[in-house]
Amino acid sequence: MIDKSMLSGSMAMLVLKLLSEREMYGYEMIRTLRDRSENVFELKAGTLYPLLHSLKKKSF
pTM here? Predict the structure, then answer.
């Protein structure tokens, strides 16, 4: 079984890595992550947007 906190932390790091390269829309992040990972990471919008909101809150 996968530890959800570890998965969440990994997803946050992957999203931050994408955003460090350039600005992207949500769907573009989902597609880029899926393509680069050869379909290993299938991030859903229902996961991405709460994660982005959480990261934004933590940045202030």
Answer: 0.77
CB atoms within 10 A of CB 8: 13
> HEC profile for 4-59?
HHHHHHHHHHHHHHHHHHCCCCHHHHHHHHHHHCCCCCCCCHHHHHHHHHHHHHHC
Neighbours of 33 (CB within 10 A): 20
- For the record, the structure tokens of 11 come out as 């997803």
Q: What is the pLDDT of residues 9-34, one digit of tens each?
A: 688 899 999 999 999 999 999 999 99
Q: Count the Cβ atoms, other than its own, within 10 Å of residue 30.
A: 20
Asked which of 5-9, 23-27, 42-46 is least confident by mean pLDDT, the reply is: 5-9
